[in-house]
Amino acid sequence: MITYKIDKETYTLNHEDAIYFYSYDDDTFCRMSDKTVQVNNRLYEIEDELMNHGFIRISKWNVVNFNLIHSAFRIFNSRMSIKMINGDKLYVNRTYIKKFILYLKEKGEING
Where does the UniProt annotation place the signal sequence (predicted)? Predict the structure, then answer.
């Protein structure tokens, strides 16, 4: 269960509201369409919990909702740039690129 606090009140996060999760300075955040909240879970816990719900790790710092990716482009140095539906731009780094491309193929998003 992924939780977050607002004004000392704890809430359970509905994964369908999450565009992506990211880590910054040992804290983990969830970017939603209307807000960003600090969650009480570590990124690896989120990845494990949501991998069967369309979420995939793209870097050491990001886990994204695959269904909310607007577009993806190959860039230099064996990386990809992805644009989320809210306009945020993230990068799939070399460590995760093969897994990401395999995931695209499994979902029928690319041929090959």
Answer: none
User: The domain that contains 30 carries what CATH number?
Assistant: 2.40.50.1020
- The whole model's pTM is what? 0.91
Average pLDDT, the chain: 92
Give long-range contacts, CB 8 A cutoff, 24+ apart: 92-101.
Answer: 92/58, 92/59, 93/58, 93/59, 93/60, 95/59, 95/60, 96/57, 96/58, 96/59, 99/56, 99/57, 100/56, 100/58
Calculate the alpha carbon distances from 26 to 43, 61, 97, 111 in Å: 10, 10, 24, 38
Q: What is the mean pLDDT of residues 83-110?
A: 89
Report d(CA 86, CA 92) in Å as an integer: 17
How many independent structural domains does the chain possess?
Answer: 1
